[in-house]
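PROTEIN DESIGN WORKSHEET
SECTION A - STRUCTURE
LENGTH: 382
TOKENS:
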């Protein structure tokens, strides 16, 4: 296969997403520009209502980013100075950043190596330890689009009387036992970064909840703590989803169910193509759940060599994430206060993200699987 042909198989998701919906997006953007109302107007209100309906919650509150969504949610719950928030270390650093910005301290817990999501047993052990005595919340990250084991985690947090919150930044459209993530517990945070399953053309985020009082506090905090214009009832911030992003998200929300099905079909094709390859562990959906397949992440002991081989074959790859948060210098203090994360350390060395988005072809998946099989055939038998 020629290099130009290989490149054409692996196009950028945000660009393709725009091209496939360009006419509708351009119309939506023009509508906002002509209206001349650019911040917290009718487009935001309409998107919030439509997104809440999609998730199945009473409220969705648009904010400026997924990071802000976590911070504002914690502040609305008065989880700040003197409190700790537990989260997996194997996730985007934005999660820990948001906790710190809210005034709380992040505390890391180990993951289940099969799903890369927060381990209920590790969480229970941490909350029962001295370090867990000041924990006020647990942030459960539906990583890569894989729903966490919500039932088991909820049993642990109920036992310790801790609030369990969702980070759905990578899981738009995922379901846990028939229930849409984002509506499983008290509240959830979403990101609409351009590469997400539901992505804007810049930053954006939202908080979803069924709690009317909590929703009111989130709305106030996102705009300086106002309830009456220009009068701050509390110290808020400026974190408003703008009208242009909301208009674009309204267009993309209508195609999200189709896109999710495409992702699931391609993930199934990968599973078939990777079956039986020695040294490669393909991801799988948790039993009784619907994975959103934001990312398709395999595990391979020879990860770096495989990554090099795939890149030489014209297959783009990435590592999400090359360093767990507790391994990063900026979070050295939180790492020292957290338990040893043996399984997280192991997972980080082996993960590799393969191309996956709704506009990828089955031919492209076959090319990737063939290249991985060729690599595996050159490896010594263990």
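SECTION B - SEQUENCE
RESIDUE ASSIGNMENT:
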């Amino acid at each position: 296969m020629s290099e130009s042909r290989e490149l054409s198989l692996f196009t950028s998701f945000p660009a393709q997403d725009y091209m496939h919906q360009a006419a509708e997006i351009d119309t939506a953007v023009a509508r906002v520009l002509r209206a001349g109302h650019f911040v917290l107007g009718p487009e935001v209100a309409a998107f919030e209502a439509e997104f809440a309906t999609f998730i199945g919650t009473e409220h969705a509150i648009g904010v400026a980013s997924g990071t802000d969504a976590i911070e504002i949610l914690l502040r609305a719950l008065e989880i700040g100075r003197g409190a700790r928030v537990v989260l997996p270390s194997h996730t985007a650093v934005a999660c820990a950043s948001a906790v710190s910005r809210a005034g709380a301290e992040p505390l890391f817990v180990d993951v289940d190596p099969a799903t890369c999501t927060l381990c209920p047993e590790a969480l229970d052990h941490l909350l029962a330890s001295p370090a867990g005595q000041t924990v006020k919340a647990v942030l459960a990250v539906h990583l890569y689009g894989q729903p966490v084991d919500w039932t088991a985690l909820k049993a642990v947090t109920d036992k310790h009387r801790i609030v369990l919150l969702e980070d759905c930044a990578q899981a738009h459209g995922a379901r846990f036992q028939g229930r849409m993530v984002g509506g499983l517990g008290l509240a959830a945070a979403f990101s609409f970064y351009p590469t997400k399953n539901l992505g804007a053309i810049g930053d954006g985020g939202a908080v979803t909840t069924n709690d009317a009082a909590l929703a009111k506090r989130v709305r106030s905090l996102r705009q300086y703590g106002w309830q009456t214009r220009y009068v701050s009832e509390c110290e808020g911030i400026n974190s408003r989803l703008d009208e242009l992003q909301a208009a674009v998200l309204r267009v993309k929300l209508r195609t999200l169910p189709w896109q999710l099905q495409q992702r699931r079909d391609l993930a199934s094709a990968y599973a078939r193509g990777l079956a039986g390859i020695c040294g490669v562990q393909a991801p799988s959906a948790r039993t009784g759940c619907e994975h959103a397949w934001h990312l398709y992440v395999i595990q391979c002991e020879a990860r770096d060599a495989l990554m090099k081989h795939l890149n030489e074959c014209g297959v783009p790859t990435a590592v999400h994430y090359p360093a767990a948060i507790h391994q990063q210098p900026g979070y050295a203090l939180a790492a020292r206060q957290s338990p040893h994360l043996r399984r997280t350390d192991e997972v980080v060395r082996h993960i590799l993200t393969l191309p996956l988005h709704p506009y990828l072809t089955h031919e492209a998946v076959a090319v990737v699987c063939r290249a991985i099989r060729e690599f595996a055939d050159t490896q010594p038998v263990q």
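SECTION C - NOTES
Residues 243-274 form the longest helix (32 residues).
The longest strand covers residues 135-141.
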